[in-house]
Amino acid sequence: MRNPVQGISLHAFDGNAATLMAALQREPINEILRDKDPYRQLRYIVDYLKYPQLGAKSYLLEEHYVDRDYMEDHAVFYSRSLRAYANYCKRVHFFNLPKAQVAEHIKSAAGLVPGADSVETTLSKAYLGFVVVKPIPGAPIGRTVLKHLPAEKGDGHLRSFRCVRDYDVHVLGLTLKVWGLAFQQQDEGVSACATTAVWSTLQKIRDFEDIRIATPAEITSLATRHILPFGRAMPSEGLSIDQMCQAIQALGLAPSLYRLGPADDLLAYLHAAEHSSFPCILVWDDPDDTTRRHAVAVVGVKTLPGSVVAVEGLTDLAREIRAIYVHDDRIGPYLRTDLENQNSGIFTVSYGNRSKPERWRASYLLLPVHGKIRLSLAFLRQASRQFATAVRKTLGQKDTTILSFESFIRQGHKYVKELCQDSTKEGHAGLGFKLVAECALPRYLGVIRVAAGNLGWIDLLLDTTSTPRSIECVAIVCHEQTSGALAAAASELAGQYACKAFTSQ
Amino acid sequence: MAATETPVRISDLVSTAPIRAAEISLEERQAFFRAVEEEMERLGFDEANEITAASERLTEHDFSVRINAR
């Protein structure tokens, strides 16, 4: 048997999906396919790469790429079909440099031109990510990692993508880096939307724990191992929330599920999950047909800072959220879905040639977390309301400073690291060091932050391995610029909450 | 006989002491949190917390919800 032949070619990106499809040499779409438009995700991706902030100008096409996720899908499902599906894929890498410049860098990498050392750095800066194209006619888009959009939006809004991670990508002997979160479309063979949403959220776990990332086929198998309420496991006919929880549990994580009522809590959970760098799964239902449900992975939020009106001197930072960015397997990665209004909990999806936006109501939020995180986002939310009230009371009625409050979860060592970086930046060295030298920290901290604008903030740190009935306060940490009022409040609150307090003064 | 080593405490190298916490009696603490509770009630936070707590009280129906969009 001869070895497979690799072929790598460099192309100009003209922003036209048809050109890219021609280069991929896809077979014509079979008219009896249920999905008459299996390339809409690819068209979305081409549109996404045309954003001026990304500005794709060229792409590199690898003809033979072995993808772990597809190989597993092939092993458990496609290899048993009559049609001999290939066990490999194609992969397309996008750059924001013109074809001629990328060609020069590749020549350098090959040693034909001096300066090869800087090639990886230069190409990584220009690298926009990759798309794996599977040999499945009805579901071509496999593992796709694209760079996310920048934080500044230019109109006062901010984008935040704390849920992404770095991926090392190996091509032509080079290691390129891209910051994003993996996306793929459902194939209805081994996965449905619920499976791919779970798969995307689990991608980030590698940043926190040594847990192997499961493939879509593994997730479906684990989800359907004990219960099969809707028929066969494969071809996948969708999952129940119970099955999604079973899969998450089987992978060594804890499924944290919330039923969403008023938008107030929805926004708080989205804010807390994103601020904690935890991608979450949002279950939507169609407001006009509540039996129709969909699952997406939330990977970022769009906020309008300073937009929340204070009530009694307190502002809830979660209410700054105006939209979320989701991986929607029906459409594509980083799809912006706008909140219809701040109180409805309804999101609108405008992409495509629909005459009016799709409307979805958020009904459940599912968060895969480490088992040691026993405190829920709901508890942290309740605790944040209490702590904000306590800080307000401690500062006294004469203090008219507007206080904002929020809650999130942070790994103990990362919290200290961030504190050290902040302390150094602000000239208050040692705050993080004091905390870690004096207090034994849990693996994950529950952080309730009450901030007084630019003056500073007070954090109440909770031990997430404790429970609401036996809650443990680790410490109070105060970072203040000048006045001393917050530090005085921190001393008072340390007495009330019976824990140590540290300040940057 | 091995030489006795004198360990150096980190707090001897760098000042790591927390700030002095206010000395508060049990009665004062109870009074403080009672006042916080009253303030939360006035702000509507106690009612909001009830609704938040309900988001975690899940039933069999919640887990049986099927996700089926294509």
Task: Describe what you observe in this structure.
Chain A is built from 13 helices and 22 strands. A six-stranded antiparallel barrel of chain A has the order 11-12-14-15-16-17, surrounded by four helices. Chain A has helices at residues 17-24, 40-49, 68-76, 99-109, 119-126, 193-202, 216-223, 241-250, 263-275, 377-395, 412-426, 431-438, 485-496, and strands spanning 8-12, 58-65, 89-95, 127-133, 141-146, 158-160, 165-171, 174-180, 239-240, 254-259, 280-286, 289-303, 314-316, 321-328, 332-339, 346-349, 358-369, 403-411, 444-451, 456-463, 473-480, 500-503. Chain A has 505 residues and is an alpha+beta fold. The longest helix of chain A has 19 residues, at 377-395. In chain A, strand 11 and strand 12 form a beta hairpin. Among the domains of chain A are: 8-200, no CATH class; 377-503, no CATH class. In chain A, helix 4 runs antiparallel to helix 5 and helix 7 packs across helix 8 (241-250). The mean pLDDT of chain A is 90. Chain A is globular, with a radius of gyration of 25 Å. With 70 residues, chain B is mostly helical. Chain B has a domain at 24-70. Chain B is 53% helix and 3% strand. Chain B has helices at 10-13, 26-43, 45-54, 60-64; one strand at 66-67. Chain B is flat, with a radius of gyration of 26 Å. The chains are: A alpha+beta (505), B mainly alpha (70). Chains A and B meet through strand 9, helix 8, strand 10, helix 9 and strand 12 of A and helix 2, helix 3, helix 4 and strand 1 of B.
